[in-house]
Amino acid sequence: MGDLSALSRLVGEGQLERVGRGIYRAATRQVTEHHGLLLASVAVPAGVVCLLSALSFHSVGTQVPQEVWIAVDRRAARPGGRAVRVYNLAKTLADAFKYRNKIGTDVAVEALRQSLAERRVSPAEIDRYSRICRVERVMRPYLEALAG
Predict the structure, then answer these.
(1) Quick check: is 129 in a domain?
(2) Helices 105-117 and 136-147, interaxial angle, to 10°?
(3) Domain annotation covers residue 82
(4) Distant-in-sequence, close-in-space partners of 111: CB < 8 Å, separation ≥ 6
């Protein structure tokens, strides 16, 4: 009960701000552009930020997701914890092609084009993850056209 009253006191004094159930932050801290990712990661610690949210995190493409996209294993434990996990860019690109019917092929191609142009990933990295995600045949023509 002491911890609860201490939190209430700090909120009352303006030192802490409640941002969600059981989640507080220092009132003087600036909210970053990735604040939503942090809150989602707190709520779903076994999840990994993916697809449009991961592309946005990596500053790839022009899409601004309205919600946080998180991949969660069906067998994952229920929420708790604080680490923010985001798939690397090559995995995110492979996922974008794997789930192109959900996010749009144009989004996936745009992300691939930008990532290659900015040399943020190598064709070898993309090839590796395209095999892992089983989209090698789908991605190969785009990769050859853009990297060639």
Answers:
(1) yes
(2) 40
(3) yes
(4) 55, 60, 61, 92, 93, 96
pLDDT at 105: 94
Task: Dump pLDDT digits (tens) for 127-136.
Answer: 999 999 999 9
Domain carrying residue 92: 46-147
- Do 73 and 111 touch, CB atoms closer than 8 A? no
Q: For residue 33, tell me if it sits in a domain.
A: no
Tokens read off for 15? 């030192």
Q: Tell how many helices (H) and how many strands (E) occur in the chain.
A: 8, 4
Q: Does residue 102 lie within any of the structural domains?
A: yes
Residue 139: partners with Cβ closer than 8 Å, 6 or more residues away: 93, 94, 97, 112, 126, 130
Number of compact structural domains in the chain: 1
Closest by Cα among 37, 25, 23 to 70: 37
Secondary structure (3-state) at 95:
helix
Position 121, amino acid: V
Stated as kind and residue range, the H or E segment containing 58 is none
